[in-house]
Structure to design on (240 residues):
């Protein structure tokens, strides 16, 4: 049986102080899995790209900061161009532990999922109040829009199967992209599963570029627009 073609992608913005440690932990895991690694440098003005290149890791750079969704679009485009079977995404700040990548890959292989989410829901109570409330609010609203229950909709530690990447097209270039993909994927009937993960640190308030109130509201607005658009398409199709 041929080995799965895997691509580990790390969206990174102003991540020079953390990225080196993440890559040092990623490299042996990638070697074990036969995976390649690409850092998507989203317009950083610090040494993010140089840190990655110092580890002989491929870097794809955006000329300006465009947002996490834009970095994920770049990662997905690379995957399709290179005929990749699955893309693993993890954050550059050290919260996601590369040693958990095989856990997600095992779930992907076992469940034949189109998307596997590394869930932090069992750790929500350890987060600061605003982050905890934002995560729970997002999980409830996005689950409602998606029509399936998802415990952790905001985790960026994921495995995207090529089938998911091929079928799901999303508009958002910011943090809302991951939520938008969940709603579209679930509405298309794609299989989405979660697996619990541990973290390098539970509350990433100091290292994350995510602003709990502002970005949660933006996500909610994008999810609403996506849901309305999908419902409109469904009605038009049913009337044809």
């Amino acid at each position: 049986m041929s080995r799965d073609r895997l691509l580990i992608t790390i969206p990174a913005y102003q991540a020079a102080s953390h990225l080196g440690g993440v890559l040092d932990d990623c490299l042996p895991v990638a070697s074990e899995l036969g995976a390649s690694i690409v850092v998507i440098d989203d317009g950083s003005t610090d040494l993010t790209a140089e840190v990655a290149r110092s580890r002989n890791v491929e870097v794809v750079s955006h000329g300006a900061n465009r947002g996490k969704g834009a970095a994920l679009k770049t990662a997905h485009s690379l995957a399709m161009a290179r005929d990749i079977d699955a893309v693993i995404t993890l954050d550059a700040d050290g919260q996601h532990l590369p040693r958990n990548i095989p856990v997600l890959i095992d779930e992907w292989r076992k469940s034949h999922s189109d998307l596997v989410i590394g869930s932090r829901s069992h750790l929500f109570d350890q987060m600061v109040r605003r982050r905890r409330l934002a995560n729970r609010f997002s999980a409830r609203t996005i689950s409602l829009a998606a029509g399936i229950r998802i415990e952790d909709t905001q985790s960026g530690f994921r495995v995207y199967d090529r089938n998911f990447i091929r079928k799901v097209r999303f508009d958002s270039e910011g943090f809302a992209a991951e939520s938008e993909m969940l709603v579209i994927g679930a509405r298309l009937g794609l299989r989405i599963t979660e697996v619990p993960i541990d973290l390098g640190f539970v509350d990433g308030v100091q290292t994350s570029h995510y602003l709990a109130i502002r970005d949660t509201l933006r996500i909610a607005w994008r999810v609403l627009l996506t849901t309305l658009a999908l419902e409109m398409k469904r009605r038009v199709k049913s009337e044809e």
